[in-house]
Amino acid sequence: MNKLVTKIGAAAMSIVMASACMLSAGNAFAAASPIAPLDNSVKMTFAAWGDPQVSTYIKSREPYVISSSNDLKNAQTNIDALVIAGDIAENGNQAEYDIVYNNLVGTGVDNFITATGNHDVRRGEFSAIESTFVGFTNRLNADAGSALVIDSLHYSYDVNGYRFIVLGTEKSMYEEASISTKQIKWLDSQLADATKSGKPAFVVMHQVLKDTHGLPDTWGGFAEGAGTVGEQSDEIKAVLGKYSNVILISGHLHTGLGKYSYEKIGNIHSINLPSIGVDNDMGTNNDNATGYVAEVYEGKVIFRARNFEKGEYIPEYDITIPLSKVKSIKATSSFTYDGKTKSPKVTLTDFNGKKISSKNYTVKYPSGRKNVGTYQIKITFKNSLKNNPVLTKEFTIVPASTSITGVASKSKGFTVKWKKQTNQTSGYQIEYSTDKKFAKSKTITIKSNASTGKTVSKLNAKKKYYARIRTFKTVKGTRLCSSWSKTKSVTTK
């Protein structure tokens, strides 16, 4: 990631100190506290790094990769995987990947789970970029004896029975990613399979979801969307939130260990990694070469913070994620405004397909849940499920709809009239098309809820058009819409 505020002083210092760093990194490595599990009942161990961003001309970054790789090599336990959440190379070229490869090969890591970041893909023709990255990842895994072979930037792979799902851009982007509907559907099917027995699933994505991990401040307070995965953020979030025990691992923000490292987004556990190579800021601990050693146990996942350069754990930044025993939460997700308070009934199911007794949980509803808006139910557990993590479920109240009272033909246009609907609305949307299924339709937004008519002009003459209308209300920047009215048709003069 490139933060838009240039650290001139830090950059100058990195040039001055580059040679000294290289010399110290080449010295024999002796970890103060070698990588070892907290408990021998551990099911899987993997290291997680963010943003090495190795460069052929910014010499200050490689030493951190060297020392961090040595820490892995000297582990006193098996490292089942190394996850690198993107921005592996500053410019995504072969010479930079060769540097990373030369440092990681021979570390004893069993599998390398790599994601592309914006720096990996921002320069050059996309097919060449993809080929270089795929070649780098496959070469690492082949030398490690791993069965992992990828042929695109999004893929999945099981390690010790636990699924890693990597999302990747489908075209070159400067800061964000381009994730297609097809890839999001693939993510959905992967999560459905990976989480069906209650095991955690690890989703690796370089950029973070919108409005998480301190955005927009952690990107410098710039425009909405900056620093995020991009315009598909809400769709990805919706899919991730459908399933239990989903752990999202990202990088990109270069924030150190601290308050921006972990966030629970609905039912999603989101881990944002500090940078290995690039300087960190806005954390309580901003050291380079920091990340996590994740240990998976029967009922929990522990992300143990570690300084890989110093070979030391930093337990004050550890993150423990208890795994949920609840497979699904069912509740009505949408209501139409009628002035009455909404309290959707909740039904919980365990991973054996059995309904969970309401004696084992409490449902807390938010206040003011009768007006148009989005609300969150909070579910806490007791008795035999008292250690289950708190779960949430959202529901929405949308505006009441309206109806078209008449359409009238005009020269190359038509007029629409409708029934005024002012309760909990901001305005109306008219959709029209020459196709009765509204393919290639156009939409007119009317920002006054007192309006009752609109003329549509500059259309084709003697052409049949179909029209429908709905109400909307904007709540906290989000436009919530009613259902569409019945369709009316009209032929222009």
Describe the overall structure.
This protein is α+β, with helices and mostly antiparallel strands and 493 residues long. The protein is 17% helix and 30% strand. The protein has helices at residues 8-25, 62-73, 94-104, 118-121, 126-144, 181-194, 233-240; strands at 44-49, 81-85, 112-115, 155-159, 162-166, 201-204, 246-250, 262-265, 268-272, 290-296, 300-307, 312-313, 319-322, 326-330, 334-336, 347-350, 361-364, 373-381, 391-398, 404-410, 413-418, 427-433, 442-446, 453-456, 464-475, 478-481, 488-491. Helix 7 links the parallel strand 6 and strand 7. Residues 1-27 have low confidence and may be disordered.
Query: Ends: how far apart?
Result: 56 Å
Helix content: 10-25%
Tell me, what's the shape?
globular
Strand segment tally: 27
Search tags:
493 residues; alpha+beta; seven-stranded mixed β-sheet
Strand and helix map with partners:
Blueprint: H1 8-25, E1 44-49, H2 62-73, E2 81-85, H3 94-104, E3 112-115, H4 118-121, H5 126-144, E4 155-159, E5 162-166, H6 181-194, E6 201-204, H7 233-240, E7 246-250, E8 262-265, E9 268-272, E10 290-296, E11 300-307, E12 312-313, E13 319-322, E14 326-330, E15 334-336, E16 347-350, E17 361-364, E18 373-381, E19 391-398, E20 404-410, E21 413-418, E22 427-433, E23 442-446, E24 453-456, E25 464-475, E26 478-481, E27 488-491
Helix pairs in contact: 1-2, 2-3, 3-5, 6-7
